[in-house]
Amino acid sequence: MTYRPFALAERIEDALGDPADEGNVFSVSRCLELDGREEFPEDICAHLDKLGLPRFYVPVEHGGDLDTYENLLQVIRTLSRRDFTVALAHCKTYLGSVATWVAGTPGQAEGLARRVLRGEVVSLALTERDHGSDVLAGRVSATPSGAGYRIDGEKWLINNATRGDLVCVLARTSPRSEARCHSLFLVDKHRLPSGGYHHLPKVRTHGVRGADISGIHFTGAEIPADAMIGEPGAGLEILLKGLQITRTLCGGMSLGMGEHALRFVAGFAERHRMFGRPLIELPQTARVLAESYADLMVAEAMTLVSTRAIHTLTAEQSVISAVVKYYVPTIVDRAVNRLAKVLGARALLTDGPFQKLQRDHRIVGIFDGNTLVNLNAVVNQFSGLVRGYRRERVDHDGLDVAAGLDLAVPAFEPDRLSLLSRGGCSLVQDLPARTGAAMDAAPEHLGRLRRYADGLHAELARCRPVARDVPPEMFDLARRYAAGYAAAACLRMWADNGLDTLWLRVCLARVLGGRDEAVDRLLPVLRERLDDRRPLSLLAYRSTH
Amino acid sequence: MSPDTIRMWLRERVAFYVERDPEEIDPDVELVEIGLDSVFAMSLSGDIEDEFGVFVEPTVAWDHPTVNALTGYLHDVVVTI
Fold this sequence. Notes:
The complex is a heterodimer of chains A (about 550) and B (about 80). With about 550 residues, chain A is α+β, with helices and mostly antiparallel strands. Helices cover about 50% and strands about 10% of the residues of chain A. Chain A has helices spanning about 5-15, 30-35, 40-50, 70-80, 85-105, 105-115, 235-270, 285-310, 315-345, 355-360, 370-380, 380-390, 395-405, 425-430, 430-440, 445-460, 470-495, 500-510, 525-530, and strands at about 120-125, 140-145, 150-160, 165-170, 180-190, 195-200, 215-225, 230, 275, 275-280. In chain A, the strands form three sheets. In chain A, strands 1-4-5-8 form a four-stranded mixed β-sheet. Chain A has a four-stranded antiparallel β-sheet with strand order 2-3-7-6, with helices on one face. Chain A has a two-stranded antiparallel sheet with strand order 9-10. In chain A, strand 2 and strand 3 form a beta hairpin. Chain B has a single domain (about 5-80), classed as Orthogonal Bundle (Non-ribosomal Peptide Synthetase Peptidyl Carrier Protein, Chain A), CATH 1.10.1200. Chain B is globular. The chains are: A alpha+beta (about 550), B mainly alpha (about 80). At the A-B interface, loops of A face helix 1, helix 3 and helix 4 of B. Chain B: Keywords: Phosphopantetheine, Phosphoprotein. Chain B: InterPro entries: ACP-like_sf, PKS_PP-bd, PP-bd_ACP.
């Protein structure tokens, strides 16, 4: 049994050709060269356009190929596995477009779809100098002028600000300081009068050195009234809803880069000999590789179920996206840093990909809502999460489809996105029943998971909500909530897809801490798959695969 | 339910979040200025649902940004059902 979105991943991989072949446009060595020169991967992005990848950034109802977000996830994963600068530069067009897909009129969406399908670049301009993650403090303004608006001010640290043909801009439409003071505008740079804007130079970054991280300064830039996406004052709301999708999809970036790191280090450990045998056979190295492999599969379980949940548990995505965006980059960062120790000093060599992906990966935890922003989003929903857990409220239809990889997901309905999940989180709230039902398969691990979830929610219930200066203990509880979610994702992935119980035990031990010696049994499976370019996936543990 | 009952409950709730006394919550001052930031103000929607058994959007406090504005809105909603 195969998972259909992997067929797409394979098609893309085949079209891109062997990453080790320097004759290919999109080869690893070429990406390293460009990174060394801090040069934008222009021809590689043009090649991706030619292959038709922008089709996956446009929903089917507007003429693209984006039907299930699982496919877009695999596009992001496949590109990130090869090179993150390229993935970030290219996939950014989806981030720039998402507000229009979620809240634009049919006319706006069709207009944008045509542009994206032509390969035009769409950027999202949110942050400003001095304000960082506090988007509400933003000063860029849109003032009514003639039949439209005029935009003034500067957006900075914007991916593709210079290359972008269109920029989705969050701008102040009211001078006050409240949630309804910003609106979103899709600004077409080609239609701005000259002098209406200029670009700010590319900044030099530690990771993704070739990326166009720059800025744009508007000076009385006149835009038509129909550039506004959604209602006046709805900017923040639309933005937060769009980010619920993109933050979930960020999991694909970590999966791709984590796999690249694991393959690179495992390959090295196969070839490199120490004490007369391959390094990979030394117990300590073997353990690091096997545990990293397990971590990646936990991240995958979580990302797959959460991406499917965009379609099936849409109203819960405010919790789900925050949990994924915090947890997946964090555990993959940890795995990458442990893998670096196997390479030793070689991790730093600039002619190898490892130093680049280690630098690049660190950025995933920062953009599109950093770790603290996401943990805060979980903290703000503690009371609903406690209520949902106590009542064991589960959207069974939604959760069953999210977890069962062979089931087709229904079409995504953006109107069901909500800034707050009224029903809490089905996956976690299903734990009391699900651990009970599965108990005999792995009594020690599942008993522990149940006690973990009960204890965590008892602590969450004791939390006094605070409006400001969230204490560190609450961030810590949010971290533990995310781990509980990860464990629940593994449990349902195992239960609904016929995965090996060995897999479940190893993953639960990785998430909850402690060690299951069975982890060593993952290594032969990993070694077998090193020569195969298909994704290193938990599906290897499907008994009927 | 009288507007006074709703107002009193809202002042208590807001006071609880910003750790002040209900008497200190001026019903005509915007919640943001009292110290309830906009993202956090969404929590009020869950409380309102629990207390009054009515469905309100998470952004209810964005569109009715003071205790008195919320009181007026909730009074209409509660009376309608």
